[in-house]
Give the backbone structure.
Amino acid sequence: MLDTRSRGYWEGRAGSLAARINLATWFERVAPLFFYVACAVAVAVYAFRRVELSLLSAWIGFFVVAAAVGSWVAWRSRRSFFSSSDARVFLESQLRLETRLTAANSGLVSWPNQPGRAPTVLRWQPRVPAAWVGGAAALVMLALFIPVPQGRFDADFRGPPPSLVETKDLLAELKDMNVADPEALKRLEERAEELSKLSPEEQYKHAALEAADALKNQVAAAKANLSNGLESAASAMKGAAEGANMKEAAARLQESLAGLSAGVLPADASFLSQIPASALDLAALSPAQQQALADALQKASGKGAGNGKGKGNGKGKGDGDGDGDGDGDGDGNGKGKGNGKGNGKGSGGPGGGGGPAELTFGDKTKAGDGNLESMGKSDLTNVAMGDKVGQSTEAPTFDPSKVEGRTSGGSVSAPALGGEAAWVNHLTPSEKAAVKTFFK
């Protein structure tokens, strides 16, 4: 009975000693990591307090990360932990019991008697890990109780977002054009109005800002489509008024009408009905009517010529744009930016006069004899680089009488010269012997 009591005492003493040593080892290794986790948690707690959010998620995240870090350190330190056998050997060395406890555990001798007072065999001084944990706790407490400034960083909403303002301006311009389909335009205006009815805080949220940007881009694309379609139709009508081919002009008009009828914001059907849709309808109009319709379409596109291009006929000096005069030589129709019409080709700086440098001429060079060819009556005023002016098809001709028979590509003039030289190799006797030895 006494031996059983002594065995329980020493085994309990060894087990508690192993647990204390293992806990100290784990704590010394995990304390620095806990400090880094606490730094992140302190920042999160302060940020949550700043935006007035619940701290529950921050605390849950802290405990989850702390548990994960503690488990990882315990797994990495498992080979350094003491077992009960290691603790018995440590007790034997500290209490000078030689190998009495190990022998008693193996049944070779009896267990030593229980001492009256348990001697101290291990003293732990956790100054460094305690400093890490204390710093972590101080950071978290500081994040919890430090005063949070109120109102300094509150958003100051002054009016609607810029994209919404631009959208309303674009819609107003479309309404002034008096060309777009009223129903389609009304739908876009209703979408803009829905965004305008949101509170200032809601308007500046991410989803509302994205919706305003998308609407602005859609309205801008619709306006550009209408303007380009009307300008293309005006160019076709102008070409017809100046004597261009009616079929080509009608084809361009049909393309313009197709573009104006499609998209998110098509043109008004009553407006499109005024534009000739076929070559017969176009030919039924007089040149004056065609020119008047071209001017109306150009004006409706918002790209009218009243404030941009000035035309002049004849030679001499013409008024450029701005307040200065520019000299121009040549006849025909010249273009210069400005208000109104000028006489001749002129170019002045916008708003301040000035003109281009004078042209210099050298000796004439002969281009050789040739035939003058006309490019037709196509309207080239809006032709851009890369645009197709016309196309033609032609089948290749084949003359069997001109086919020659097979001919030689060349003959050998001397041995080891020419193409056959690649197949001739000369080896020295020693090289031949080495090759024969290798391929035996």
Notes: The chain has a mean pLDDT of 74. Residues 92 and 99 are 6 Å apart (CA to CA). Strands lie at 309-312, 316-319, 325-328, 334-337. The longest helix spans residues 2-50.
